[in-house]
Prior knowledge:
single chain, mainly beta, Neuraminidase, 5-stranded antiparallel sheet, 4 helices, disordered N terminus
Amino acid sequence: MKKHYQALLVAVSMAAVSSQALAAADSASSDTHVSVAADTLPAGQMEIIAALPEPGPSGIAVTEGGRVFLTFPRHATDHDKPSLGELRDGKIIAWPDENITRETSLPVTQRLVSPHGLTLDTKGRLWLIDDGKVAGHPIEPGAAKIVGFDVKTGKEIANIPLHAPAMLPDSHMNDLRVDLTHGKAGTVYIADSSFGTSPGLVIVDIATGKQRRVLTHHPSVLAEPGFEAVLEGRVRCYDPHHPGFPIGGIDSITLSNDSKTLYYSPLTSRRLYSLPTALLADPAATDDKLASAVTDLGEKVMTDGLATDAWNRIYLTAGEHDSIMRRSPDGQIDVIARDPRIIWPDGIFATRTHVYYVLGQWNRLPGFNDGHNLRKPPYLIARTPITPP
């Protein structure tokens, strides 16, 4: 009851801030005849459920019972904390245990080196993509992998190492979604955003471990040349040779709630694309056939994460606008939360009652700021209530 009351206070205070800001704007307008841009004002409800110290989190998944899991990758900044944890009473507890989530003596194939994307399948099992990368070091063979867990027991149910030719030397296995409607045990779709300039979509059969790389040269997975974004008032231009912005290939990825459609977008793009999973999961489908099936669903906002709710609405991490937005099946996009604390939202996950998101501050990394680390803990984990359409 106490936690519910605290959450209610946060929601009410956010609404009050919004009302006060709007009132101030109206007053300023009437007194001085100066209009104030509405997109600078808070909107919607944002409840902070955790404020975490270093290291910075990335992926998030929330079970039907409300358990919250988070990943803590090591590819940008190495650390000695758990790389996968469960949020309990505002603190991170190594999950499933300390041994596999820290840099222990276990082989890289048996521990979580740098888990990034996180998701649940339709059976409620937890899946992650381990990009295998430790800052300043090459990716060891077997370090990049797909790992699945039974959340009730913590038992590992799958461990699939990624390898050539599906994986490239500069691969950044960034995010994943699990489709249980294709393949004997299901199919995994991975967004390889690339640590270099070779992004692609990787398809893995869970039962056999067979994997293939598709659409590596298709515009829908590539970074848009000359792409620019405004983050915290600063214009950032995508330039792989002089990084001022994260590498920009295919990044955001989500499934329709019936798993018939995969939606995706490069980081350096404002377009949303889709493909039928029946074709993606078919190992006989050629790149030409897949390319002809890509649908351009039109413009959205720049996103680092996508999530689908029970009503097939897609949630967008809109870092340029300090916002979380929602795209309806008819293509309409609405702001559901806007707050100046929404700094580079990354991982995102939708339940039937809330959309949860991680505020990662990725644009503040030293690699994009002349060697200066501008990230400022605590890292916020937030959620916004949602209702059926």
